[in-house]
Amino acid sequence: MFVAMSGGVDSSVAAALLVESGFNVIGVTFKLWGKGNGRTCCSLDAAMDAKRVAHQLGIPHYVWNFEAEFLRHVVEPFSREYASGRTPNPCILCNRFIKFDLFFKRAMALGADYIATGHYARVVFDDASGCFKLLRALDRRKDQSYALYMLTQDVLSKLLLPLGEMTKDEVRKLAMTLKLQTASKPESQDICFVADGRYADVVIERYPEAGVPGSLIYADGRLIGRHRGIAHYTVGQRRGVSVRSPSGKPLYVVAIDADENAIIVGEREWLEVIEAEAVDVNIISGKVPIEPFACTVMHRYRSREVTAKVAISHSKGGLKALIMWDEPQIGVAPGQAVVFYSGDELLGGGTISSVRYRHKFGV
Questions:
Q1: 272-357 is classed CATH 2.40.50.140
Q2: What does the alpha-carbon distance between residue 121 and residue 139 come to, in Å, rounded to a whole number?
Q3: pLDDT class of 39 with cuts at 50, 70, 90
Q4: What is the spatial distance between Cα 332 and Cα 313, in angstroms, rounded to a whole number?
Q5: In angstroms, what CA-CA distances link 182 with 137, 153, 176, 275, 324?
Q6: Which of 58, 131, 273, 280 has minimal Cβ neighbours within 10 Å of its Cβ?
Q7: Residue 3 in contact with residue 15, Cβ under 8 Å?
Q8: How do the domains of the chain map onto residue ranges?
Q9: Rounded distance between C-alpha atoms, residue 288 and residue 314, angstroms
Q10: How far does Cα 200 stand from its chain's mean position?
């Protein structure tokens, strides 16, 4: 079986647990981004850390070059979406196209029985439904199920997540006990292709028009200033909006009109969204609900879980969903992932394509 080893403490402990359980483990690190720095998950330093841990565990270790695929399926779509005024999640793109497509398929082609990662989530088989289920991690603070909504029954049947029943403190303690090379390594805080959190630089390099200044418009339609270029803004953002509202209150980005190169701003209440439509929806069980269903919903990683009704329907491009929140939500934006839960079970999710605001803009 193959385990994805990023060079961090989580994947190192995942590999150690699998070795301890008697699996024939092979460690794999992905080469994704040639410009990665020492803090990120795909840098040369990270690959060397993974190799050292593999040596400590007595398992083979390989580096698989997915750099071209990463550029095509993650960096380019992220940049394009951002330049279009949407808010994509690059880690979800990486999970979908790299870890649970390319890695999975290559491992299976090489005869693996399973793949494993250091994600904090749980996979269980439910006898009653005859399906694999994806559950939240035991450690809610570290739960990463939100970023795994794209998983299918085929992948879940071959996926091991050894950290799902552990807390982060337990993982770190075990790494110390085993004297793993990565035991004291801090968690990566940067996206591997974004230096020091400067998203705009990556976007403007590929889409220069996203750095062109344009109109800053108040939600009632009034022109109140100029913005620096849409690559510098996301819906819900307050920092960087230097002008004040006509009432003197702080302003937030409430919408982005890339076609007109305009940023629409307003007070916090203008951010309130009551419905959203999502496309490219995946239902993990493979059994598409016929009727609208009540569930809890998250529209950002680490966002508060809130109640809503979701209606799934078929479209030419696949499944889509209408999310109807019980109460208005703040900071919902096209491009974000939205996911559906029933208790600890992740039912599925999709990508927000449009939103319906509580208040109608005057633009």
A1: no
A2: 9
A3: low
A4: 21
A5: 22, 32, 9, 44, 44
A6: 58
A7: yes
A8: 2-195, 212-270, 272-357
A9: 9
A10: 18
CA distance 85 to 101: 27
| Residues annotated catalytic, as ranges | 94, 192
Alpha helices in 130-267 (DSSP H): 153-156, 168-177, 199-206
Q: Which of 259, 249, 262 has its CA nearest to residue 221?
A: 262
Q: What CATH number should be reported for the domain whose range is 212-270?
A: 2.30.30.280
Three-class DSSP category at 197 = helix
Residues 14, 16: Cα–Cα separation, whole Å: 5
Within 10 angstroms of residue 220's Cβ, the number of other Cβ atoms is: 14
Single out the residue of 351, 303, 348 nearest to residue 329, CA to CA: 303
pLDDT digits (tens, 9 = 90+) for 186-241: 877 667 777 666 888 899 999 999 999 999 999 988 898 899 999 999 998 887 77
Tokens of 73: 């399926």
CA 273 to mean position of chain CA atoms: 21
What sign does the CA torsion over 90, 187, 296, 128 have?
positive
For the chain, the 3-state helix, strand and coil shares in percent, each to the nearest 5, are 30, 30, 40
- Judge contact between 207 and 83, C-beta under 8 A: yes
Neighbours of 283 (CB within 10 A): 18
pLDDT tens, 76-117? Answer: 999 999 999 999 999 999 999 999 999 999 999 999 999 999
Distance of CA 8 to the CA centre of its chain: 18
Q: What confidence category does residue 160 fall into, taking pLDDT thresholds of 50, 70 and 90?
A: very high
Q: Centre a 10 Å sphere on the Cβ of residue 316 and count the other Cβ atoms it contains.
A: 5
Of 3.30.200.20, 3.40.47.10, 3.40.50.620, 3.90.1560.10, the CATH number of 2-195 is: 3.40.50.620
